[in-house]
Amino acid sequence: MPRDRSGSTARAPPATTTFAARKISSGYSWPECPCWHEGTFWFQDMYTEP
């Protein structure tokens, strides 16, 4: 049974955050496993030949 929330204080709606997408590279077939390591962005490309 749900508890009575009539005495609870009202909460503010969650803040919204806006992000802008920016292309940093192109020409990949299947980039995956993105991560940051020591300030550098790394990922694998499974199918593009070097």
SSE inventory with pairings:
Layout: E1 31-37, E2 40-45
Antiparallel strand pairs: 1-2
Task: Summarize model confidence as the mean pLDDT.
Answer: 83
Question: Mind telling me the C-alpha Rg?
Answer: 22 Å
State the helicity in percent bands. Answer: under 10%
Count of strand segments: 2
How many separate helices? Answer: 0
Proportion of residues in β-strands: 25-35%
Q: Which sequence of SSEs, written as H and E, runs from N to C?
A: EE
Question: Your description of this structure?
Answer:
With 50 residues, this protein is an all-beta fold. It has no helices and two strands. It has strands spanning 31-37, 40-45. It has a two-stranded antiparallel sheet with strand order 1-2. Strand 1 and strand 2 form a beta hairpin.
How would you summarize what this structure contains?
The protein is mostly beta strands. It has strands at residues 31-37, 40-45.
Using brief descriptors, characterize the structure shown.
single chain; about 50 residues; two-stranded antiparallel ribbon
